[in-house]
Design a protein that fits this description.
28% of the residues lie in helices and 14% in strands.
């Protein structure tokens, strides 16, 4: 009873690999929030706003900021409900929400953590020399 999402990760499918060297700088640009969805006011979650992440980790984002589904009008091909005419609104404009695949933030988080560990180890070595 599990849902599993796998992404192709075999090295044989990839090329032009380079190490992530700006993990900490990019992570510092992310703005995590605590929030609730309007339809679930009593359920608080942690996460991001997709449009704020799109410039930092664009591959994690689907959709466009402020996108809307267009208004749909009745046409001559539709069966018209009573009181409706051709050209009346059949479906109102509604939000076409952006999505985020937070798993795609993991490589950046890992790189930033590795950079931080290296800095900590360097500082610990310097402190040990000073104390010694």
């Amino acid at each position: 009873t599990a849902v599993v999402y796998n992404t192709s990760s075999d090295y044989r499918l990839k090329e032009n690999e380079t190490a992530i060297t700006d993990g900490i700088e990019r992570i510092k640009q992310l703005k995590p929030y605590r929030f609730n969805f309007k339809e679930e006011p009593d359920k608080t979650l942690d996460g991001f706003f997709a449009h704020e992440v799109s410039g930092i980790v664009p591959e994690a984002i689907s959709g466009d900021k402020d996108a809307m589904h267009p208004e749909v009008l009745y046409t001559a091909d539709d069966e018209l409900p009573e009181g409706k005419n051709i050209g009346d609104v059949k479906e109102a404009t509604k939000i076409n929400p952006q999505g985020i695949d937070q798993a795609k933030l993991v490589p950046l988080l890992t790189s930033a953590l590795q950079e931080a560990i290296t800095k900590i180890e360097t500082l610990e070595a310097k402190v040990a020399v000073l104390e010694g």
